[in-house]
Amino acid sequence: MRAPLIALLAGALFGAGLAVSGMADPAKVRGFLDIFGAWDPTLVFVMGGAIIPMAIAWRLVPKLDRPLLAPKFAIPTKRDLDPRLITGSVLFGIGWGVGGLCPGPALADLAVEPVPAALFVAAMLLGMWLHRFLPSP
Amino acid sequence: MVAGLIGGLMIGLASAIMLLGLGRIAGVSGLAARASSLSADGPPRLIALAFIIGLPVGAALIAAILGPIETNFSPSIATLVIGGLLVGFGTRLGSGCTSGHGVCGMSRMSPRSLVATPVFIGSGMVTVALLNIIGIV
């Protein structure tokens, strides 16, 4: 039972980080995307700040035989730049711009402004479900 | 800026805990799909669910400690639904979002994430610019 507890703590730290950074606010995220308007660079600092611990973590992975609480590392191996990666990222970006929300802040906001956040999350899960009807590549 | 950097470091630390502790990528879209049984890929479902539940828990803790978190959602139901649908579908098709590609993949210099991240940021910027021109907020 230790692994789910660690995942819960990691999720809580992640959600807390979103709240502290200001990224829980859709208007602030749209401010970052609004380069021709009153551009808000905060997201650059958030992403930059998040990349620092992760860059260190990636350097530690080869030195470990296995993760501390799991039998093995499960790390994506795909390297090809297929049309799905590009199309999916374009569509995600459009949705991100429209709502000012990506999945993390939308889920964290369930505790902050439950009604609009739940509406967005429900639509997001519907979108994920619709993706299942796409034939496999 | 400082709040963004601190929040970012917390997000990065949370992602590092997922990687070094559980051997998993802290990609919120993938974990949300796994937690809701919309995907068979990823960690055991309980791990994904625990992380996803942690997100609003962390935001609620910050609200309790530091005071209310500012959120400005679009008042339009259509905006939230269309945004959510595109984010859900797009992140599944493109195998990741801001956390999986933007933080975990970029810090690893994954070629797919190094392409996906500027694509969804660019797509989001174009979307916000177009919405501003049309006059839809």
Structural write-up:
The complex is a heterodimer of chains A (137) and B (137). With 137 residues, chain A is mainly α. Chain A has one domain (2-131). Helix content of chain A is 64%, strand content 0%. The longest helix of chain A is centred in the first third of the chain and has 20 residues, at 2-21. Chain A starts with a helix and ends in a 6-residue tail after the last helix. By secondary structure, chain B is an all-alpha fold. Chain B has one domain (2-134). Chain B is 74% helix and 0% strand. Chain B has 6 helices and no strands. In chain B, helix 2 (28-35) crosses helix 3 (45-66) and helix 5 crosses helix 6. In chain B, 64% of the residues are buried. The model of chain B has no long low-confidence stretch (mean pLDDT 96). Chains A and B meet through helix 1, helix 2, helix 3, helix 4 and helix 5 of A and helix 1, helix 2, helix 3, helix 4 and helix 5 of B.
